[in-house]
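Lab notebook, bench 4. Continuing the backlog of folding jobs that were queued last week. Each job is logged with the same field layout so the records can be merged later without manual cleanup. Today's entry covers NAD-dependent epimerase/dehydratase family protein, a 315-residue chain. Filled in by technician R.K.

JOB TYPE: sequence-to-structure
TARGET: NAD-dependent epimerase/dehydratase family protein
LENGTH: 315
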Amino acid sequence: MEKILVIGAGGQLGSELTAALCDQFGNEAVIASDLHEGSASKFDYCRFEQLDVMDIDRLKALVKNEGITQIYHLAAVLSAVGEKKPLFAWQLNMNSLLSILEIAREYKLDKVYWPSSIAVFGPNTPKTNTPQFCVKEPITVYGISKQAGERWCQYYFEKYGVDVRSLRYPGLIGYKSLPGGGTTDYAVDIFHKALAGETFECFLDENSYLPMMYMADAIKATLDIMNAPKERVKIRSSYNLAAMSFSPKELYEAIKSELSEFSISYKPDFRQEIADSWPDSVDDSHARSDWGWKHQFGIKEMTRNILVNLPNFQF
Ligand code: AKB
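JOB STATUS: finished
OUTPUT FIELD FOLLOWS
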């Protein structure tokens, strides 16, 4: 029987992924953990443990005592916040991954999931349909940590047989929790302002194209790669993953076609340089052919889905 530990469960991805894992494996099989004690209130359906991922002794004890077989390691400092606290971002992002890979090796875990990001790419990467294998010279600490993390994942797979699987997420857009500290977060914030009847001030330029994905698709991709037979997961650094690409102006227009009064202004800040260094769109054909990845949501379907569901959601 699987016993799954989700680290960083209180975050934007973790809140929804934990619920999906409980649906698949049963509530008893999942332990949600987060640094923030306050996240406990999100998990009335499964066990919650307050956990600092940097506390390796506690992490080891939890894995050993609970008979953990899989870890989903989602805790990270994202791109924008990472630029404010570069050394902290490096320490947290790298040391936590290394601890978990070591624990996976020592305790022979069945599987580990660790997310990478489009942040591994940089200004010298081909901008459109960015290939799986190409130049990567990330300009953010977050991107550097994800790039190095990808190498460590491949290393642990090849040297020690650790079954670690990873996806390079585009910007993730969900309505069930707020994102924290990313460059793509404008695409979540905009919906909250639109529904509050306020003008949205966008921190990116109107024509900044970025790869994006609706959370339902991100959850599906994560479960798909983790449920795929081992031999079909051929890339052990991290897979390119795509669904849609749009600019702030295009997202604004999609929302405005549903809420005609909505208005926007543009005031690019330091996050513009980060966005400019990332791809406009990504080629995810390896994920599609290796383990059958297929997205469902485009910008229209996503916008309708969020505008229908967000007003009824209690934070
Ligand atoms: C960020 O903007 O930092 C993240 C990401 C693309 O990984 N959403």
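OBSERVATION: The chain has two domains: 4-170+214-240, 174-212+244-280+297-312.
SIGNED: R.K.
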